[in-house]
Amino acid sequence: MEAQSLSTCNQCGKKFQRKAHLLRHQQQHSGDRPYSCKFCSKTFKRSDVLRDHFSRCERRGNSAIPSSLERGRKRHACDECSRLKVKCDNNVPCRKCTEFGRKCVKSRTTAASSPEETTTPGPSTPDTGSDRNSIGFLLNGTGETDFMREFPKSTTLSPHNKAVDFASMAVDARYEPVGVAPSMYQGYREATQEHNLDVMLSHLEFTAFEQRTNNWQMPGENVMLGSGPEDLFVDRAAMDQRAFDIREKLKYTAATLNPPHPPSKDFLDAIGLITVDNFAAYIKLYFRHWHKHAPMVHEATFNPTTAALPLVLALMSLGGMYSKEAADVLKLKMLLDTIEGYIFSLPGLNDEYELPGRTYVKQGEDASPEWQQYQLEELQGAYLMAVLQYWTGNETARIRARQQRFCRVVAIFHHLELQTVQHSLTLEIKDQLSFQTWIRKESFIRLITMALMLDNSFGIFHNVSPRFQWAELDVPFQSDDHFFRLANYDAVLASKLVPLRRMKIKDAFLLLFSPPETVERDLEILRSDKLNALDMQMLIHFLYTHLWAATFCNPIASLPSTSIPHLLTPFKSAMSNWKLLWDEIKSESLDKGEWNKLGFQRTAEGYFETVKEVAEAFEKRVGGGGAIKGDCEKGWHLKQVLSF
Question: Rounded to an integer, what distance in angstroms lies between the CA atom of residue 466 and that of residue 385?
Answer without folding.
Answer: 20
